[in-house]
Structures are given as structure tokens and as C-alpha cells.
Amino acid sequence: MGSASRLLVLLALGSLALASSALAESSHDRTQFGHDITVGMNETASDVTCFGCTVRIHGNVTGDVTVFGGNILIEENGEVAGDTTDFGGDLRLDSGAKVRNVTVFGGKVRRDPSATVQGDVTTFAGGAALWLFLIFGLPFVILAGFIVLIIWLVRRFSRPAMPLAARI
């Protein structure tokens, strides 16, 4: 991995870290990378976002719950007033759980009969790996192609010209 590639990876990670603090404007928002989030029985959170971890909800979430690469567990009497979205993981709704809309890409919905879904339940289980790649992976592949092209062009046009006698 070249130094330019390392620099780009570090810049991307730094941007992601700064963006996560911007997403968590309210003191009740929760955003984590790789660490599970638990909303306790007597707790209220506004929005919950998790990258590579599990979200457990015993209390109330007044906004949305979004998980990338993890599971969502809405346990007994847990409640989500906004949308519940899981990319690449499973959603479990225990007895007494209440949610509005549910969307699951590449996972399963396990729902207790006494759990309440007030809106739609949408699952993309068939070919989910392809969809996840198209949504998240393909833009990075295209970006990497542009970066490689720019580096190649810069190197090609920044070389010193060879004398005509040396070309023969």
C-alpha cells in the first residue's frame, strides 16, 4: 500500500470520525463504531446509529434506529417511534415491542406475535450481498479507480522529457 493510499485511508477515517460527532448533535443521540449500544428500561434516546455492533432497546427511542453490520434487538416493551433500519444484520422484536417502520437488508426479521409494527415491514433477503455491494462497495471501487487514474496521469505528465537521442 503506497503512501498516497495510506493518506487517503487516514483522511477517510478522519472525515468519518468528524461526521459522527456532527450526527450526534443532541445529548440523547447515540452513535457508536464497534461498541454495542443499550437503551435501558427507563431511558429515552432520540436517534441511535451503530456501525459494526448490536443495538439493544429496553426503553424508548423517539427517533430512528440504524445499524450497519450488526443486529437490532428490541426487547420486551421496548419502543421505537421512528424507522428501524438494519443493513447486514438481523432484527428481533420481543413480546410487547413497538416499532413504526422496519427495513432489513441482508438479514432476517424475528417477530414475536405480540410485537406491534405500526407501519411497513420491508426485507431484502434475496441477493442482499449484491445489493449491499452495489450500495456501499461500488461507489468506493469507482472512487478508487478515479484516484488510480489521477495518480497515473500525474506521474505520466510529471516525468522529465527524454532527449531525442536517448529515444532512438
Structural class: alpha/beta
Total strand segments: 16
Rg of Cα set: 23 Å
- Molecular shape: elongated
Low-pLDDT segments: none
Average residue-wise pLDDT: 81
User: Would you list the SSEs in sequence order as H and E?
Assistant: HEEEEEEEEEEEEEEEEHH
The percent range for strand residues is 25-35%
Main sheet record: 6 strands, parallel
* Ends distance: 35 Å
How are the strands of the biggest sheet laid out side by side? 1-4-7-10-13-16
- Oligomeric assembly: single chain
SS element count, helices: 3
**Helix proportion range:** 25-40%
Care to describe what's here?
- The protein is of the alpha/beta class and 168 residues long.
- It has helices spanning 3-23, 128-158, 164-167; strands spanning 30-33, 37-39, 44-45, 48-51, 55-57, 60-61, 65-68, 72-74, 79-80, 83-87, 91-93, 98-99, 101-105, 109-111, 116-117, 121-124.
- The chain has a six-stranded parallel sheet with strand order 1-4-7-10-13-16. Strands 2-5-8-11-14 form a five-stranded parallel sheet, with no helix packed on it. The chain has a three-stranded parallel sheet with strand order 3-6-9, with no helix packed on it.
- The protein is elongated, with a radius of gyration of 23 Å.
- The protein starts with a helix and ends with a helix.
